[in-house]
Amino acid sequence: MNSLIPLLVAAPLAGSALLLLGGRAFDRFGHWLATALAALSFGFGLALFWDMLGRDGEHRAVTEHLFSWVPVNAFQADVSFRLDQLSMTFVLLITGVGTLIHLYSVGYMAHDERRRRFFAYLNLFLAAMLLLVLADNYLLLYFGWEGVGLASYLLIGFWQHKPSAATAAKKAFIVNRVGDMGLSIAIMLMFAEFGSFAFTPVFDSAHEASEGKLTAIGLMLLLAACGKSAQVPLQSWLGDAMEGPTPVSALIHAATMVTAGVYLITRSAAIFNLAPDARTAVVVVGAVTLLFGAIVGCAKDDIKKALAGSTMSQIGYMVLAAGLGPIGYVFAIMHLVTHGFFKAGLFLGAGSVMHGMDDEVNMRHYGGLRKHMPWTFATFGLGYLAIIGFPGLSGFFSKDRIIEAAFAEGGTEGWILGLCALVGAAVTAFYMTRVMLLTFFGEKRWQPDAEGNLPHPHEAPRTMVIPMVLLAVGSVFAGALFDINDSFLKWLEPVTGHSEGNSPLSSWTVTGLTTVCMLAGLGLAYVMYGRSPVPVVPPVGSPLTRAARRDLLQDDFNHAVLVRPGSALTATLVFFDSRGLDGFVNGLAAVIGGLSGRLRRVQNGFVRSYALSMFGGTLVLVASTLLMRSV
Amino acid sequence: MSVLLTTTCAVPAAGAVLTAALPAGATEARRRTTKTVALAVSAVTLALAAAVALRFDPHGARYQLTESYSWIRSFGITFSLGVDGIGAVLALLTAVLVPMVMLASWHDADPGPAAPDGTLDPGTFERRRRTQGFFALILAVEAMVIVSFYATDVFLFYVFFEAMLIPMYFLIGGFGDRAGGPESARQRSYAAVKFLLYNLLGGLVMLAAVIGLYVIAQDQGFGTFDLPTLTDAVAGGSLKLSGTAQNALFLGFFFAFAVKAPLWPLHTWLPNAMGEATAGTAVLITAVVDKVGTFAMLRFCLGLFPDASKTFAPAILVLSLIGIVYGALLAIGQKDIKRLVAYASISHFGFIIMGIFALTSQGQSGATLYMVNHGLSTAAWMLVAGFLISRRGSRLIADYGGVQKVAPVLAGTFLIGSLATLSLPGLAPFVSEFLVLVGTFTRYPAIGVIATVGIVLAALYALLLYQRTMTGPVKEGVRSMPDLKVRELAVVAPLVALTILLGVYPRPLTDLVNPSVDATLSQVHRTDPAPAHPVAATSGGEQK
Amino acid sequence: MNPVNYLYLSALLFTIGASGVLIRRNAIVLFMCVELMLNASNLALVTFSRMHGTLDGQIIAFFTMVVAAAEVVVGLAIIVSIFRTRHSASVDDSNLMKL
User: Fold this and answer.
1) If you measure CA to CA, which chain A residue comes closest to B406?
2) A324, A454, B379, B498: most buried, per Cβ within 10 A?
3) What's C13's domain CATH number?
């Protein structure tokens, strides 16, 4: 059975290779082949899941060693997979949602001439992501980690004839590279400290290392997580990443890849548990990002960018939960899974709306779409209810547990974190209601295109509707399913460990408070966007709104602090290299050339002057010989 | 005594003579004969170099397949060849790359169309013999480089280390890009002279050190240039070099290798040479000839002067660290595609030298793999860039844009080359770069950490170049650009395949290299720093 | 007669020849001065030979004479050909040694 594990990765990888190398021959059926291989991988995942359920909690983790990758004395990196409950959860999420999004893309990308390549990249992404979560050592994880970065780069820049897409892709890759720097330093630290970077040995001997070393490792892992999961301060790429086709945003930049940071932190629980300072940093990053993303999400008129802000914010919740330590790991992953469902569903819905509205993304040009796109409206609506935490839907259960855990951190810290999380819940309800109202309710504010034709919104084809429906089902029921009997908790506990905190507030109080906050946000949004007509041209707005529209000035900051000094530095260095270093060398050559020019004048060609110098030379020789003899 | 090594060196040398002697002529058929003969010779060389690598037993003696013929008896100079894992791998790399370079440069040495004013293409060679000259020179370089990798006699190595400058000088100065006008001919001769002077200066300093070494060794009864004898004597303590003498001799050797490698701040000849030469010659420079420099640091500097190596290691590490960051920053600022690749190479050479002088097994194995992987990946990157440049006739980045729309295969292979350059996991350079970083970190944590900045900067220059040339709206002048031809694909495909293969399964190389690296380290009396809290040997090995 | 006197004569002749080479412009005269110097050294050689009672010096003197003769042949030919092209035998007319 374990030999199926490599096949999980191999199936989509083979698909990607076939589609890229096969050329035009695959144009007609390549997309179905890719979808079938994604589904096959999902099938393998289910089979392994069934197999795993047959064993009890402590014996579920299995490893499958394939071959030794880079062996240099003590440095032993293996290609070796580890399938435990945590990676199993991810495998099912990735292949399941991945398959649905492949299916959706069949319809969404039907008219793109480069569809084959798109599916090749999607399959490549699945393979890399599965490698990331299945790796049993950090170096192999790093392989997957950068692999998904590559897939993300290729897919964000899929429409690379648009300069904005190409720039966004490059930006995403480079910001992620900054994070990857953290991961590589973490691996180096582990190797220097433990002589290994495989999970089991590192976690087993983590307690022997000093807290300072563990904190350093933890902070470096956090840097990596910030890059991949778009957390402050490496968040700036996610909004631009919406340049990619919408299925990409749904799969990579909402459901799976961006949550890899949460996976990394949870996977490294053994290190973070022993490094409270590193955990504090994680919590702070999570709390700041959750508010940052939410505020940005409120101001964006671009539907995908609003959802991107929301993604950032929701991942902030997960990071916050993961930073809380054993009381939060399980809920971080639980929220990650439910978020995977509803956010993917929301993005697919947004894609469907754009599909019907001739690729219009500005929500101020939508309005009243619910009658024209009933399926989209229904599925999007369910996703919306799930994300704002409407009681009974999946977001309600997972987010509620995180807020509870935040309060349970205890002390002032716990209060601050809990309040942040509560405010976040209110803001989430506000911006999501805004998206909902602007898109599906109110008057039609449709704008004519260049030729003066109004868009004709229509429901999406069946290949697109089916995935949306299935994801909506997940968004509705997943939370309840996980919460009943604490089934998810029991499932993951053997891997991540779990401890109950002492919350100053009772569980029911937290639930009540969360619901009140949610209703407040919802109500405010209704007052602002539901009751009064929405202007097509955005009003100037408060300074905060204006800043939020510019992503709270993140790009201006990066530009002023990094880009401009950086380009000044390169320009200076280019000058220094050609004038300084090379100038020195060329100057030396010129001096020698000048000297030899002088010396050359001695050779004037007149016989008698040569004769004179000859006599002079003879004289000197004779004189010195005589002198030497007399001495 | 097997003559396999001599044969491997002699075949390309004989091929060079043969190619040069082939009948000249301006007809296409005659040129094709020349090229085919040269390619066939390089293919035979590849087979021989592969045979050497296969017959090398990693667990056997340090130097294998040894041969020795007396040469200049009065100075104890012999023509001795022998191969260790590092030399075998690098010679194989050379043998792999030369046929690729030949195929890629198939038309580079054809007599070009006369300039509009009727003047002939300025070249060192008479136009009718250009093709013969070009391919003969490449084979000559190949022969000399392979001798350098196999030589176990210090003087023999020195002779070929210097001699390869001559064919390289003519390759750089005589056969340039078609891209430039008369100005470029001037630039080209400047570049060729600069290349020659820099490397000659380094070589002269080394010659002084070689003589000095001989004099000191002869005083103590070792009147020989035989490397194994000398290194064993140094390691065993029977040949004693005083501290000052050792430092001076080390610097003499190191200077020559640092110029060739090149190490910051001795690098400025490389961008000129790589920029002005044809893409194929540029690959020969950076992927083949420069590797002799880094290889020689590993074999000669460390083996002959272990104490001085340890003394100077921190200073050299700092220089290489500067080189990593400096090269990358300059690459970002370049406007010329080929110069950008050259500066990127300077950054990579910083990594290689850093790995060598970190004096850890990971660092040195990484550095050796880096030499191979950098050779393969830069060859792919540079050759595709060359194909691109030959289509548009310009080296300026600003002249390109949107190429992926019209030539997707070209753009795709260029992207893979870029990704290899920025060390994406799964491609070969990642393995080596990470090993170098880890190897450096375990001994010098601060330097290791700063060096990781290099990986961010590498992403920046590689992807900026890709974005500016390949994406965006299709520029005028790019519109009718044809995609890669079969010949060009035949050049790039094996390189890409090797890059991927060695990224996923580098075992064939590490198995060859590791024992030699361990031997080198034991000569320097260095062992890897032990981890602070070692885990009992459960990691990795547990399943084996 | 004291052989040392021959040496004085030889030195005198040599000095005359040397100053002639440096001072005179005409190539032919210059040539004669060179011959004078050669013969001065011949004289010195023969004198030394006499003083030491060996034949070495005399033999070398013969060699010198042969060399001088050969030199005259080549040298005169060059001077004649220069005179033909330039219509002058002055060595200062042009920097002959520079191409």
Assistant:
1) A161
2) B379
3) 1.10.287.3510
Average pLDDT over residues B274-285: 91
Contact B41, B18 (CB under 8 A): yes
Q: Answer whether residue C93 is part of any domain.
A: no
Specify whether the CB–CB gap between A312 and A291 falls below 8 A. no
CB atoms A615 and C22 under 8 Å: yes
pLDDT recorded at residue C98: 62
Say how far apart CA B41 and CA B19 lie, in whole Å.
9
Best C21, C33, C82, C93 member to test A by mutation, with max A CBs in 10 Å, is C21
pTM: 0.88
Report yes or no on B109 lying in a domain. Answer: no
Please report residues of B whose CB lies closer than 8 A to that of A76. 539-541
- Range of B313's domain? 305-529
CA A523 to chain centre: 32
The larger pLDDT score, comparing residue B182 to residue A158, is at A158
As given in the structure block, the two tokens for residue C67 are 């060399």
Record: contact C95-A608, CB cut-off 8 A = no
Report the gap between the CA of C36 and the closest CA in chain A (Å). Answer: 15
C25 domain-assigned: yes
Q: H/E element holding B65?
A: strand B64-72
Mutate to test the interface with C, among A600, A602, A608, A609 (most CBs of C within 10 A): A608
The 10 Å CB-count burial string (b at 16+, else e) for B374-403 is bbbbbbbbbbbbbbbbbbbebbebebbbbb
Domain that holds residue C41: 3-86
Number of domains in chain C: 1
B510: chain A residues, CB-CB within 8 Å: 70-72
Contacts of A44 (CB under 8 A, 6+ apart): A4, A7, A8, A11, A95
Q: Which of residues 215-234 of B touch A (CB under 8 A)?
A: none
Indicate whether B537 pLDDT > 70.
no
Torsion of CA B26, B30, B35, B41, to 10 degrees: -140
Cα–Cα nearest to B470, from B482, B480, B458, B478: B478
- In a domain, residue B101? The reply is no
Is B227 part of a structural domain of the chain? no
Query: How many independent structural domains does chain B possess?
Result: 1
Which one of B437, B445, B473 has the shortest CB-CB distance to A184? B437
How far apart (Å, rounded) are the C-alpha atoms in residues B184 and A534? 63
Residue spans of the domains in chain A: they are 1-274, 290-539, 559-630
Chain A residue with minimum CA distance to C26: A608
**Shortest CB distance from C98 goes to which of A604, A611, A612?**
A604
In B178-268, where does DSSP find H-type helix? 182-219, 227-236, 243-260
Q: Quick: pLDDT tens for C16-61.
A: 999 998 888 888 888 899 999 999 999 999 999 989 888 989 999 9
